[in-house]
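Example 3.2
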Amino acid sequence: MFVVLALGLQEAIPYLSIAEADFQTLEMYPSLRDVQYLLSVVYHNLGMKNERQDAATRHSRTEEHLRQLEAIVSDDQILEIFELLTTVGAALASR
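Structure, written as tokens:
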């Protein structure tokens, strides 16, 4: 049974790696963080210590990046400008 589980985990690695690359490209950081965590768990269960550590390191970097993004404070005046631009753009497009 363990052999079947191990084969399934090994088959999942390429798909998880593709998902990780795609989420990185799309800058979908919460999903990227989840995939990196899952990859580290898969590597851990397969006894692949170096790969697990690499995935855990990437996961930590993504966590830090998310914290930095959450710390960015938006300015109300900037939001008002974007709302005005949206309204003007919609009016111009509806001509």
